[in-house]
């Protein structure tokens, strides 16, 4: 079964066309009005270049001559244009003529097998039962599809394709497929619903979580000028300034040789304020947390998270082989990456 996009939304059509699974587009004047499009011909030409298959558009007219003229004008907009024609006496005359001229037609507003027979014998390339509209008034919309397919299969001379239209739900698409319909034309919201299943979403969420957690610490660390570093003799005022400027809630404390001897976190700072009457009278070494928790840059993110959870901390320090500060990994960077990647715990 071929799939068509039932829309005039150029952005959606472009998105779906890139999947290379849709064979065409069906439109209506209502669709174009809904999208705020006034130059319909220009938009149709644009759409016809996006999609590899056919674009079905209305052939307007009150009698067969007007319909024929409109269909002939339609063909000038592109080689892949098919004219949509509502079923009535005049349109059947137009369809019969156009089929002789090898101008493709799509007869729609079909709600019964008898109407479908008339269109098929006239030579319509497509016949569109509007299943959704039948369901709207309490009829079994898929039933007409079944009757058309069963009847057409008994008459090999009939070449009309059954295009299931007015699709409202993925269930309509499924039933059309099971019955053997040639085409289903589907609105974007129903296409999106076809992609969905609760178990698929759960699996994708788990897959995305695994991708994140099996990344390396080195993919998330702050390095170089991003690192907040002071010496043990730095005044607490300057230490606080460094902490604030680097936005990591921590300052690394190094000795005169640049080796790590500890850190001051925002938690250490709060405790020091309670302990000392005037925090600015003290040095960084008086507020220091010695032997802060560290991790290798080649460790996995899940290992870093486990270590943070174990020690109820939000940072881990990455050291060089010489015990010099190399980087800091912060839990907020991991959570931010999850949010940007679409991961939802």
Structural overview:
This protein is α/β, with parallel strands linked by helices and 345 residues long. Helices cover 45% and strands 19% of the residues. It has helices at 10-17, 29-34, 40-50, 64-75, 89-100, 113-122, 131-136, 141-153, 170-179, 188-195, 198-213, 236-246, 266-275, 301-311, 331-341; strands at 2-6, 24-26, 54-58, 81-86, 105-110, 126-129, 161-164, 183-186, 229-231, 250-254, 260-265, 289-290, 315-319, 325-330. The strands form three sheets. Strands 1-2-3-4-5-6-7-8 form an eight-stranded parallel beta barrel, surrounded by seven helices. β13 and β14 (325-330) form a beta hairpin. The chain starts with a strand and ends with a helix. 33% of the residues are buried.
Low-confidence stretches: none
- How many β strands by DSSP? 14
In the sheet with the most strands, the strands line up as 1-2-3-4-5-6-7-8
CATH superfamily of the largest domain: Aldolase class I
Q: Identify the overall geometry.
A: rod-shaped
Largest sheet: 8 strands, parallel, barrel
Integer average pLDDT: 91
- What level of helicity do the residues show? 40-55%
Total helix count?
15
Using only CA atoms, what is the Rg?
Answer: 34 Å
CATH level-1 class of the largest domain: Alpha Beta
Q: Structural class of the secondary elements?
A: alpha/beta
H/E order of the elements? EHEHHEHEHEHEHHEHEHHEHEEHEHEEH
């Amino acid at each position: 079964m071929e799939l068509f996009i039932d829309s005039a939304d150029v952005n959606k059509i472009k998105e779906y066309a890139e999947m290379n699974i849709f064979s065409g587009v069906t439109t209506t004047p209502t669709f174009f009005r809904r999208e705020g499009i006034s130059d319909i011909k220009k938009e149709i030409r644009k759409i016809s270049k996006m999609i590899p298959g056919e674009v079905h558009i209305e052939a307007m007219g009150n009698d067969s001559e007007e319909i024929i003229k409109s269909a002939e004008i339609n063909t000038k907009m592109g080689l892949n244009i098919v004219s949509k024609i509502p079923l009535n006496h005049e349109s059947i005359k137009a369809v019969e003529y156009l089929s002789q001229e090898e101008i493709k037609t799509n007869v729609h507003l079909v709600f019964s097998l008898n109407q479908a027979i008339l269109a098929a014998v006239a030579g319509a390339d497509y016949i569109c039962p509007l299943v959704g509209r039948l369901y709207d008034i309490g009829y079994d919309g898929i039933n007409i599809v079944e009757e058309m397919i069963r009847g057409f299969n008994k008459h090999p001379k009939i070449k009309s394709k059954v295009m299931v239209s007015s699709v409202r739900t993925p269930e309509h698409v499924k039933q059309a497929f099971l019955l053997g319909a040639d085409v289903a034309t589907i609105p974007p919201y129903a296409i999106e619903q076809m992609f969905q299943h609760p178990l698929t979403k759960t699996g994708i969420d788990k897959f995305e979580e695994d991708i994140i957690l099996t990344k390396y610490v080195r993919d998330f660390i702050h390095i170089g000028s991003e690192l907040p570093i002071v010496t043990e003799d730095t005044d607490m005022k300057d230490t606080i300034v460094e902490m604030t400027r680097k936005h990591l809630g921590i300052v690394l404390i190094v000795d005169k040789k640049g080796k790590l001897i500890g850190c001051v976190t925002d938690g250490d700072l709060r405790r020091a304020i309670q302990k000392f009457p005037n925090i600015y009278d003290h040095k960084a070494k008086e507020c220091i947390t010695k032997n802060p928790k560290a991790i290798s840059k080649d460790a996995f993110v899940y290992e870093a998270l486990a270590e943070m959870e174990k020690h109820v901390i939000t940072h881990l320090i990455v050291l060089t082989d010489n015990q010099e500060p190399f980087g800091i990994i912060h839990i907020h960077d991991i959570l931010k990456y999850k949010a940007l990647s679409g991961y939802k715990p």
